[in-house]
Each structure stands twice: as C-alpha cells, then as structure tokens.
Amino acid sequence: MKTGKFKIAFKLSLLFTFLIWTVWVAAELFGLELWRYGIYPGKIETLAGVLTAPLIHGSLSHITSNSLPLLVMLTILVYVYPKSSPVVLVVLYIGSGLIVWVIAREAWHFGASGLTHGLMFFLFTIGILRRDAISAVFAMIVFFLYGGMVWGIFPRDPAISYEYHLAGAGLGVLLAFLLKNIDSKIPKKRYDWEDEDDQFNEQEYEKKKDSAQ
Question: Is residue 213 part of a domain?
Fold first, then answer.
C-alpha cells in the first residue's frame, strides 16, 4: 500500500464527511429547515436539490448511518481507482438525484445514502470484474462491511428513500462495467525474500544448464 496516496484519499474523504456534518450541525444550531433544499420529484423548483440533497440529513441517526460508510468507501475509491473516481463521484452524486427527480414517489428525498449505495455497488462489482487481487480484496471488505445495503434498494419504510438507494446502486453497477479497465492495477508488493528466491532459482537454472552441456 502506498502510504502517501492512501493519506490523500483519506483526507479527501474526511473533508467531504466533515462537510455534511457541518451542514447538519448548522441546521440544528440555527433551526434551518434544510429539507426544503431536497428533491421533490417532478417539481421544477426543486431540481437544484440534485446538488444539495446529498448534503442534507434529517436526524443524528440519519447522518451517523451515512458517515462511516462514506469515509471508508470514498477512501477506497480514490485510492484504488484514482482515474475513475472523479467520474464515479460526479455521476453518482448528480445522476442518482436526477433519477430520483424523474421517477421517485411524491415526497421529499435527501441524504447521502444514494451515494453510499452507489459506492458499495460500484466497488463490489468492479472488484469482481477486474479479477486482480487488490480489487477483489477491497470488494470483499466492502461487501462484508456494507453488504446489508442490498436490502436498502427495496421499499420497506415509507420514511426512507429507497428510490435514492436504487438509483445509486444501478448507476454503481453500470459504472463498474464502463470503467473496469480505466485504472491500472496496483502492483503487488514484493518482499526481499522473494527477490532472493528468484535469484536462487536463476542460479540453479544456470548450474543445470552448464552441467547439461
């Protein structure tokens, strides 16, 4: 693991997580009704909510449930897929909101869970498609930690925007297929003893070659 790149990925993810917490704390302190900046499907005046809705959370439990998954999966995305990550973030952030505005039921939709579901489905799917060790390991980690998000794409609780989850998940899978070959594979770390083994095997080969002659 390249420590420098990982630190950069973590700091960027931490910055976004800090942003949504800043918005929530400000809303609580000043009594701001930020739900009005969410998305209400079909209403032109709420179309700008595509940009603001992921930053808004209605309760402490709501923002808490999204914060750690965002921090973890954004870090993995930026670290493992640096070339794909800008495209993934823009498409998930804006695309899922647009889909919600077009097809979701009549209600206010907001929160970063569309983004978290998109990240989970993207990281898991691309890890399976690429078939390299690093991608597969992170895919398994993400699924182990957040595989329960699969159930979030189905309607269960009227107070939860499953449409946002479903839109993010669908875009995540689509992006994984489209971007699977964009990023180069992270080279496997080699240890000194592996180099020594290679050198030893090469010397043995030369000895056998000389004896055969």
Answer: no
pLDDT in tens, 88-103: 999 999 999 999 999 9
**Helices marked H in the chain — which ranges?**
3-30, 49-52, 60-80, 85-90, 96-103, 113-130, 133-146, 162-179, 192-212
* Token pair of 15 as six digits: 């910055």
Closest alpha carbon to 142 in 150, 130, 154, 132: 150
First to last CA, the chain: 45
Residue 153 inside a domain? The answer is yes
**CA dihedral angle for residue 166, residue 141, residue 66, residue 130, rounded to 10 degrees:** -40
Query: Is the pLDDT assigned to residue 65 strictly greater than 90?
Result: yes
Do the domain assignments include residue 139? Answer: yes
Residue 212 lies in a domain: no
- Pairwise CA distance, residues 13 & 9, whole Å: 6
Give the count of domains, the chain: 1
- Euclidean distance between CA atoms 10 and 18, whole angstroms: 12
Q: Domain containing 64: what range?
A: 3-206
CA dihedral 201, 204, 206, 210 (to 10 degrees): -160
Judge contact between 199 and 147, C-beta under 8 A.
Answer: no
CATH code assigned at 135: 1.20.1540.10
Q: Please state the pTM of the whole predicted model.
A: 0.87
Half-sphere exposure of 36 (CA within 13 A, CB side): 4
